[in-house]
Write a structure and sequence with these properties.
Blueprint: H1 6-18, H2 22-31, H3 37-66, H4 75-131
Helix pairs in contact: 1-3, 1-4, 2-3, 3-4
Length: 162
């Protein structure tokens, strides 16, 4: 994806994280914003990226027109070339910043989803530990003791006490 725009990269990241096409995710973010506020945030950042991506295209087009092959720029064109180049750099930096912000929002969304599942896992582990019924190996009957269970102190280390 070396020639993909920042907008295309953001769209791909959001679609991958949401598991749906961008149009469906946009609709979800607008209709039910409280269901997934981080998705809404990513979509909002993407909407600003649309504007920035357009600015990048405009500045690139203007710069290419001013510096086209065979064209000798006039003295007054030098200021426009410099200005267009600086504006292009700013727009590209804004695009990268927006792309990075979307990446951070998606990471936060995944971390929040993982954190929501973590208490259930810990509760299940605590319930198994409290019950004293550790899971048995397949094929092991309930009458057989668990081979990993501690039996007690070794008899070989005990000698006559005086």
């Amino acid at each position: 994806m070396p020639d993909a725009t920042a907008l295309n990269q953001a769209t791909a990241m959001i679609e991958k994280a949401g598991g749906r096409p961008i149009e469906a995710l946009e609709s979800l973010a607008v209709r039910r914003p409280s269901d997934d506020p981080l998705l809404r945030s990513a979509m909002h950042i993407r909407s600003t990226l649309v504007i920035t991506d357009n600015a990048v295209a405009v500045h690139q087009h203007r710069l290419h027109a001013l510096t086209r092959p065979g064209h000798v720029p006039a003295f007054y064109d030098l200021e426009r070339i410099t200005s267009s180049a600086a504006n292009l750099r700013v727009a590209q930096a804004e695009s990268r910043t927006s792309l990075q912000a979307i990446s951070h929002v998606i990471e936060a969304r995944e971390a929040a989803a993982t954190a929501d599942r973590a208490p259930a896992v810990r509760l299940a582990q605590a319930a198994v530990a409290r019950s004293g019924h550790a899971p048995r190996a397949l094929g092991q009957s309930p009458d057989q003791p668990d081979p990993s269970a501690a039996v007690g102190p070794s008899v070989a280390g005990l000698g006559p006490h005086r």
